[in-house]
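Slides due. Your pick:
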Amino acid sequence: MSDTVICKNKRCLKEIDAGFRFCPHCGADQRRTRRTRRANGEGCIYALPNGKYKLDCVIGYDVDDLGKLVPQRVTGTFTTRKAAIEALPELKERKRAELADPSATQKKYASLTLSDAWEIFEASRAYESLSKSQKEKLGIARRRVAPLENRRIADLLLDDMQDLIDATVSTYYPARDMRTVFSHCYKVAIKRDIVPYNKASYLELPLLHEEERQPFTHDDLAFFLADWRRGNHFTGYILIMCYAGLRPGELMTQLIENIHLDEQYMIGGIKTDAGTNRTIPLPNVLIPVMQYFVKKSKRKLLEMNKDNFYQRYWETIERLGVSHLSPYSCRHTYMTELARAGVQPGIITAAGGHTDYQTTLRYTHIPVADMVAAANKIGPDSST
């Protein structure tokens, strides 16, 4: 009696004669051997088009600047699959020794300069996650720290950075951006065990003196409205900012599909959690303005680039002879007019997309006469 075996085809699994090359039931080749899957930690071996083999093995994980896990790999290219398998243990041991010995990393980056560190940061996912405007601001600050770019971070002194900031800028925000550049470079160095701590965190910045923005007057608003009705349609954008409380950036990103004229509101807003995708009421005075732009525009309420918008804005302000205030004052106008009209603080805060009323108070500018009139309503003699 001849020996029997089970067909290698998992869908068949019938007994056949051990001498058969092909299964008489399903026709499967019995000499075919299935390559076993490599175990975890043994890596993957790929056949390359040039006939060689590439080894790729993950031996652990590190954490990047965003707190995400980054695999630590050993790789290599070999003439045969067998050579790749035989080389793996030595490659893994060498890589682990390098990761376990901080001095190896320190030697590699011993001459790391400020410029080198910034290049590493620019190639990181932390940098890629920044917005376009953030990258532009940091680019300006990076050019301002250029006098120190060839200094080794290990040799950089706090006084070096402080003196450069003090000599270069005199206001808070540019100084803050310079400190941010230094800080990112230090984080690169700390991660590579070049320095023990972030010296940039000890840099002192100029005091922040925020210029108080004033609202447009009632006369200014009347001029804007009359100008719109005369057919100067750009002024409609100023009216929208004044009567809907939009920031310039919110005006530029407002989508037509999120404007609901029948219900007199739109969904929009940026910057904060409370301000993003908030419900923005549209007063009656804005309905004709919004109808015009909704009909005229394709996708966005404002189909104009930032530079052209600001140029047209200042041209309109000069032409009408109204208060010489920036576009951001339109939002202050909105908050102030709501407060003067006696709207409840909670509604003003929600309409403006603020998280608390303390923030809203920075946007309201109540005239003294209105405050006196309000004070006169207090007490039993308020009717006199």
Q: What stands out?
A: Confidence is low (pLDDT under 50) at residues 354-368, 374-382. The domain at 114-202 is CATH 1.10.150.130 (DNA polymerase; domain 1).
